[in-house]
Amino acid sequence: MDNTSTSDIVIINGNSHPDLANMVAERMGIKNGGCSVFHKSNRETIVEISDSVRGKDIYIIQTGTKDANNNIMELLIMAYACKTSSARSIVGVIPYLPYSKQCKMRKRGCIVSKLLAKMMCTSGLTHIITMDLHQKEIQGFFDIPVDNLRASPFLLQYIQESIPDYRNSVIVARNPGVAKKANSYAERLRLGLAVIHGEQKETDADEVDGRYSPPPTSAYSNLLGNSVEMCLPATPSARQRTTSVSVGVPEHIVKVKPPLTIVGDVSGRIAIMVDDLIDDVQAFVAAAEMLKENGACKIYVLATHGLLSSDAPRQLDESPIDEIVVTNTIPHEIQKLQCHKIKTIDISILIAEAIRRIHNKESMSYLFRNVTLED
Question: Rg of the chain over CA atoms, in angstroms?
C-alpha cells in the first residue's frame, strides 16, 4: 500500500491483543494510532485517543480473551469515542467474538450473542471483521455488515507442510457437531474421516430443571385428554385416523448417552482433530485417550482460537496429544511457556488484507474462495 491510500486509515487497539494490532499495522505500512485504554481504581474504563479521527476510517482491533467483559467494554467505549469525534467509518476487527458460543436459547437463559450485537451496533460500529464464528448464523444478529474470515487455509497449509506423512492421516471430529467442519478438511486434503460419538459425562443441557417437570396427573390432565376427544369430528373416518392421548401431555423420554465410540478407522494412522475453539480441554484429552487406545500413532489438534482457560496447558502437556496448533487470534504466550506442545500460526496478513480491501472498496470474495490444494 502506498501512503496516499492509507493517509485516512487509523488503527487503534485496546488491551486485549496489542501485539496483533502492531503486526497488522506493520504489514500495512502504517503507524498504530495513539489510543490509551486504562482502568480507574473503581474499575471504570477510560479511553483517550491522541490522534485526530475526524473524517477518517477507524479500525479498532480488539479480540476476546479470558477477560471478555473488559474486552467488550473497551471496544464499545472506543467505538463511541470515535463516533462522537466525527469519524467517517468505524470498523471493529474482532478476531474472536466473545460470547459467540451463547448463540442459542438454553433453558431459561437468553441469546447473549444477540445482545452483544445490538450493543456493538449502538456504540457506533459500522462494520465487523471477525474470524470463524462458532455459528455462521450469528452474522444475522447484526444490523451492520459482518465479514467472517476463514483460518482454514492457514491450518490446511500447516498440515501439508509441517505434519510428516500427512497422507497417512485421518481427520477426526471429536463430536458429531464438528463433523461438518471435519468433513470439509477431509475433502480438501483428500483424507479419511472419523467421528467420535457419545459423551464422557452428562452435559449441562441434560440437567433437570423446572421446564422439564411433568404436568399434574390429576383430574385436570384427564379433563384435558377428554376435551381433545370431544373436539374431534364426528365422522368415523376422522376418528380412525386420529390418535388420542388419554393421560394428558406425554412425558419427555430421558436421553441415554452411549459411551465414547469411534466411527472410522484410526489404527496406525495420524489423527488430526479440528475445531473452531479450544477452551476447556477435558473433552479433547478424553478423545485423544480413546484415539490412542484405538491405535492412532500420533494425535494433532488444530483450531482457530486458542483460549486455553484454567489449567488447560497442564492437561494438554500430560495428555497423549502430540501437538496443538492454534492461530494468534487470542494471545496465549503464557500458555505456550507452560506447554511446549502448543504451536502458533500468524494470521495478521489475512486481517491486513481484509482491511485493505474494505478500505479500497474491493471485493472480499477472494478471501472466502475455496482452497485449491495440490494433488
Answer: 25
CA gap 8, 364 in Å, rounded: 20
Read off the DSSP letter of residue 288: H
pTM for this model (two decimals) = 0.84
Q: 57: number of CA atoms within 13 Å, CB side?
A: 15
In a structure prediction context, what are the per-residue pLDDT tens digits for the chain, which is 375 residues long? 444 456 789 999 999 999 999 999 999 999 988 899 999 999 999 999 988 999 999 999 999 999 999 999 999 999 999 999 999 999 999 999 999 999 988 888 899 999 999 999 999 999 999 999 999 999 999 999 999 999 999 999 999 999 999 999 999 999 998 999 999 999 999 999 999 988 765 444 545 555 555 555 555 545 455 554 555 555 666 566 766 666 667 777 777 777 888 999 999 999 999 999 999 999 999 999 999 999 999 999 999 999 999 899 999 999 999 999 999 999 999 999 999 999 999 999 999 999 999 999 998 887 876 544 333
Question: Pairing state of beta strands 127-131 and 89-94?
Answer: parallel
